[in-house]
Amino acid sequence: MQVRVKPHPRFPAIFQVALEDGSQRLATKNLVPGRNVYGERLVRYEGVEYRVWDAFRSKLAAAILKNLKTVPIKPEHAVLYLGAASGTTASHVSDIVGEKGRVYCVEFAPRVLRELVNNVCAFRLNMLPILEDARFPEKYAAFVGGKVDDVYCDIAQPEQAKILADNADLFLKEHGWIMFAVKSQSIDVTKEPSEVYKLEIKVLKNRGFSVEEVVNLEPYDKAHAMIVAQTR
Q: For a surface tag, which of 65, 95, 126, 199 has the fewest beta carbons within 10 Å of its beta carbon?
């Protein structure tokens, strides 16, 4: 059996790959052909190169495989990415938004940001690295070019929903969307993850968001959920 690729039935610029062994994976069209980011497999189909998207390494891929109904990130969008780390998921977001899109990558750890810059941003001109703490969005306001279409948040700090909402207040367009990968154990290890998710959802609702979906990410990520919400 040969590798076959087809567009995802719901989400633009996301693809489904059938590998030689018959297994099904997600993929994105590689913005930088010939280069991978985290050791992911590159496959060619009908003259186009795709990056196989590992759901055990990416909460966004995990959420899609857990039947997420809404992925607001689309081609040509501007995305503020909080907690970009070394670029695993952010690089797939870069593929999705394409050359006409932008991914503003906020990361607090200097060593990790160096990896992001040297291994990813140096080759992906639609990714802009920002060495700052997501708790203080006013410090990097000058580096974000206008309002963004989406905010993606994947941070390991206690007040995750508050930090996300503070950034959305400053940067998100009217009726814009957020994707929030909640790490329950970074918020409160004494509570059940489901209780933590409810508390974070309450914060978002109090800050003017309409929560559209909540998807548990197990078995791909333990004690994690993806929340998708839109500003009212």
A: 199
